[in-house]
Amino acid sequence: MGLGSGPACDLTLNSILPPELREKYQNPAVIRKVLAESRTIAIVGLSTDRQKASHFVATYLQYAGYRIIPVHPRAKEILGERAYPDLLSIPEPVDVVDVFRPAHECPEYARQAVEIGAKTLWLQLRIVSLEAAQIAEAGGLQVVMDRCIKMEHGRYNGSMHWVGMNTGIITARRARRWF
């Protein structure tokens, strides 16, 4: 069994975090709380290319009802939303800062997330930066690391299969909605 409390939580992801850090940065209770209580997600590294994972994830989250704020150095608009060159330029409150950038860039985004008063720093699947986590935690943010926010939303919302993801679970049970 994995960290979760049901079969949907036992999916194996390609996490590169050691088990002791998974408990801290991939805690299902924290993830559920973040997804349930957040409404505005700034996505750092949101691509204008529809084939890129960041664009796909943002499209899904927007469809799920979250307000998406693109953070891109050159784009003017992505997914019908005004894009900003950095987190400090965003003129409204942000609940989650979701980062799709290399790990060595994450500490700077963690500093910016603290400065704008975000509630959570989320580093996407296969992105690990303990320095960014320390900066965010010292600033009072929750941290989720090495997890895909779309996959986690789908896991707890019962919608992972909507876009063709093989969950490895065959069941006739109706998915339980968490939020």
Q: Which helices and strands, and how do they pair?
A:
Blueprint: H1 19-25, H2 28-37, E1 40-44, H3 53-63, E2 67-71, E3 77-78, E4 81-82, E5 96-99, H4 106-116, E6 120-123, H5 130-138, E7 142-144, H6 149-157
Parallel strand pairs: 1-2, 1-5, 5-6, 6-7
Antiparallel strand pairs: 3-4
Question: Can you walk through the features of this model?
Answer:
The chain is of the alpha/beta class and 179 residues long. It contains six helices and seven strands. The protein has helices spanning 19-25, 28-37, 53-63, 106-116, 130-138, 149-157; strands at residues 40-44, 67-71, 77-78, 81-82, 96-99, 120-123, 142-144. Strands 2-1-5-6-7 form a five-stranded parallel sheet, with helices on both faces. The longest helix is centred in the first third of the chain and has 11 residues, at 53-63. Mean pLDDT is 88; it is low at 1-10.
General shape: globular
The end-to-end distance, rounded to whole angstroms, is 23 Å
User: In terms of structural class, how would the helical and strand content be classed?
Assistant: alpha/beta
Low-confidence stretches at least 5 residues in length (pLDDT < 50)?
Answer: 1-10
Number of H/I helices: 6
